Amino acid sequence: MRLQRLLFSLAAFLPLAGSAQTPVSIPIINSIFQDDTLSCSPGGDCYSLNITGWVVGPQSGVYKSSTVQYPTAPSSGLYAAYFGGGLTGSILQTLGLTLQANKTYTLTLAVGARADLSFTGYLASLMAGNVPVASSNKATPVGGTFVNDVIEYNSGASPAQLGQPLQIFVKSLGNGQVNIAKVTLTMQ
Amino acid sequence: MKTHTRLLPLAALFVGVLSAQTPVSIPIINPIFQDDTLDCSPGCAYLNITGWVVGPQTGVFKASTTQYPTAPASGLYVAYLGNTDATGSILQTLSATVQANTTYTLTLGVGARADSPFTGYLASLMAGNVTVASSNKATPVGGTFVSDVIEYNSGATPAQLGQRLQIFVKSLGSGQVNIAKVTLTRQ
User: Fold this and answer.
1) What domains appear along chain B, each with residue ranges and CATH number?
2) Residues A149-182: pLDDT tens digits?
3) Is B170 in Cβ contact with A35 (below 8 Å)?
4) Structural fold of domain A24-187
5) N or C: chain B end with fewer CB closer than 10 Å?
């Protein structure tokens, strides 16, 4: 009888432990910046202001780069968000999910520096209700490459922004350009 | 007293039936694209649209009779999405959220300019960044608008329950799509 109780308790605990460890992907519109199609040939002049699904700042849009900008780009071009270049730029998306307690959120961004333009930094933030809850600018890609920046946020038992919509925000710093090729956000 | 007791449930039922059958309009910012004013002569356009998150090559267009023969002399305001340079899109997140056992009806006035190719579109009702219903069945001939009506019945336990509704339209191909009006109702 004792053994049965023990097994029952363990069985009840195991699914909880399993679900707590499995990251759940949070939907992002146009997360790899391929929802828009540019008809121009890949290269430095192939871009357009604005990006489907994202609220953008100045000098921000869709860019189809060639091997001149990223040596590993396919011949059909590599789509990414561009922001900044002379002016600063930004992208922002408010998500459908709200901030929950006792969750770990992981925001991952592929941050790129063009080989033919200067990269002068960026700031990426996970926000909730228009308030940053975690930020990073630690990726330092050399020209022609992308580097992942992984931002973790543990909401704790009673986060100040509990129930507020989650948001992803990235801005360029200085007068260089930042490219973002992919954004993902998970919760566990 | 007995009569009162009998009539009360009947009255409640009647009110219930009435409310179930009456579509309720869900507020949309700038649904007929007339919130922006262009001071140019009809036939002109400008990037971006009040109240909408837009993709590339997307904005407000004040069409003339060259584009739509029935346009008034003062011009016909619409959204334009896409052109030969890039595809375009419009997106608006509403304040209303998905409720169970509710039918949502999204209606769009989809237009094809008489002076520019129309190469298709995709219109979606979304919730929490997830598509719940889509359509691309309107095929307007040049110079006309056709309504596309998209219905979504949420059922008893929708996956997106409580998520905010969104309206999303994108152009396909290298042509242009015009949207003159967007409405969303629930019942």
Assistant:
1) 24-186 (2.60.120.260)
2) 999 999 999 999 999 999 999 999 999 999 999 9
3) yes
4) Jelly Rolls (2.60.120)
5) N
